[in-house]
Specification:
Helix content is about 40%, strand content about 25%. By secondary structure, the protein is α/β, with parallel strands linked by helices. The chain has a seven-stranded mixed sheet. Helix 6 crosses helix 8 and helix 8 packs antiparallel against helix 9. The protein is globular and about 55 Å long. About 45% of the residues are buried. It binds S-adenosylmethionine (SAM). The site of S-adenosylmethionine has 22 residues, from helix 1 and helix 3.
């Protein structure tokens, strides 16, 4: 793999998803959402989660932190023409992409997009049958106000659904275990306020007053170094250099270790995705 392993200029926060529009490479980062969304394993685990919520035909649904609209398109197909799908995001860059990518499709609901912060949703109480935040809360320093807002705009009996990765349980094969641990753990703890984001979701739903909370854990598994996984590991290597966890030569050697594993059919990466759903009393 050949990423640009050079020290990058400081950005406002090491987690670019906190404030995407402030990033010099915002469009490129937005494109990675589409790359992830189209990875077959990712598409499968996203659809399994929507079934678990469940999202039904005719539902009125809100996605908070909708990005470029990967989930919105699945939602629109699932709820059908009698349903409605609304996406909000703080980033104008992703909303511009989502407007282009979420075109009306036969048999699917129309998708409406709005610029808004998840902690201040511009909707009346009880407006939606279901509200979702998928890989959003891990990027927030204080996620509870967003979950409370989601609960407010969900009707009594409706569902609030959260899904996040958990960077405490990423398993990746590599000949140098000590270096791999140092990079994976060191980067995750410097970038995210709560790297164990996935496993805290049921607690957040309960703290926001939701009932009948259920959890479903799914695994992203890659044995071929998919483009999404490759980008994920390259980003970890870049950040390891940026945070002084390792030097550029060692980081490149680490990436080359994965390429060697792929060549002999021995590459494995798994990452847990935790999906939690609660019912609004
Ligand atoms: C990793 S992306 C996930 C996008 C989409 N849910 C998906 O799974 O493809 C996280 C998104 O959350 C948005 N975001 C972060 N903080 C937010 C906030 N406080 N309110 C609304 N959106 C937010 C970011 O701009 C970004 O588009």
């Amino acid at each position: 793999m050949t990423p640009a392993l050079v020290r990058t200029p400081p950005t406002p926060h090491p987690d670019p998803w906190r404030d995407l529009d402030a990033q010099p490479n915002a469009e490129k980062l937005a494109a990675t959402l589409e790359l992830r969304g189209r990875t077959p394993t990712q598409a499968r685990l996203r659809r399994r989660f929507l079934g678990f919520v469940p999202i039904r035909r005719g539902d009125h649904v809100l996605e908070v932190g909708c990005g470029t609209g990967v989930v919105l398109r699945d939602l629109a197909a699932r709820v059908g023409r009698r349903g409605t799908v609304v996406g909000v995001d703080r980033s104008r860059v992703v909303l511009t992409a989502a407007r282009r990518l979420c075109r009306p499709e036969a048999g699917a609901a129309r998708v409406t997009l709005r610029a808004a912060d998840g902690a201040r949703l511009p909707f009346a109480a009880g407006r939606f049958d279901a509200t979702l935040a998928i890989t959003v809360l891990l990027h927030l320093a204080v996620p509870l106000p967003v979950v409370r807002e989601m609960a407010r705009v969900t009707r009594p009996g409706g569902r609030v659904a959260l899904q996040d990765q958990d960077f405490g349980v990423v398993a990746v094969a590599h000949p140098d275990r000590e270096l791999t641990d140092r990079i994976m753990h060191g980067v995750a703890t410097r970038v995210y306020a709560e790297p164990w984001s996935g496993r805290r979701l049921p607690g957040l739903l309960r703290d926001a007053g939701l009932e009948r909370v259920r959890l479903r854990t799914d695994v992203y598994q890659d044995t071929g170094l998919e483009p999404f996984t490759k980008t994920f590991l390259e980003r970890r290597a870049e950040n390891a250099v940026r945070f002084g966890i390792t030097d550029a030569v060692t980081a490149q050697r680490w990436l080359d270790g994965f390429t060697a594993l792929v060549a002999r059919g021995a590459f494995v990466m798994t990452m847990n995705y935790y999906g939690a759903v609660g019912v609004r009393p």
